[in-house]
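Friendly challenge for the regulars: who can give me the structure tokens for this chain first? No prize, just bragging rights.
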Amino acid sequence: MDVSAVPTELEALASLLEPNRRQLYRYVEHQSDAVSRDEAAEALGISRSLAAFHLDKLVGVGLLDTEYRRLSGRSGPGAGRTSKLYRRSRQQVAFGLPRRDHELLARLLAESATSDGTLGASDEPAHNYGRALGRRARKHSRVSAASQPLASIEVALDALGFEPYRSAATEVRLRNCPFDPLAREFTPVVCGVGQALISGIAEGLGEDRLQVRREPHPDRCCGVITVSR
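First reply, four minutes later:
Bragging rights claimed.
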């Protein structure tokens, strides 16, 4: 899991534990247009300053967005001051343990669909996406893929939620499947996507000593990555 993202998501969710803040968020998200501080305060029966405080806290954790405009609808002299307005953010906030990424799986499967909308058998989109991730990891990594190929692929796989760990000096296994439980129900398709994704990362790292295979296991991802000496 990308641990750098966890505190932000937890902070956003934890902010809704405060009753006024939670009610303000619910009020804003149900409105068809952006909401002013005065409108929100009146709706909840609290002071304008308290509403402003909590609304800005929700903005700070990414749950609300702001915009500025004159509520009179007029412009120029005498039109009045612009008001700070709040609306629900388009940013999705979700947190779960262990990590799941069904959106990524859906995107990769959708890209493999044929032009008439039927699902194809190609894992090429997953492989191409993995290869792009591998190239990016190689470009930004502080370690050399040539000298430490397993370390490089561990970083890339951890960011996707696979939770890699060293089972041996030359082997990495994956503690978590971000596509579970769909991988259990539709194993050939979903695990095929996963293996193509991992193989693509290995290729993108530019290290041909990395080998990816599947080893079914009920309690973890079936992917296994080894490096030849």
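The chain has two domains: 3-88, 102-227. The longest strand covers residues 64-69. Your move, everyone else.
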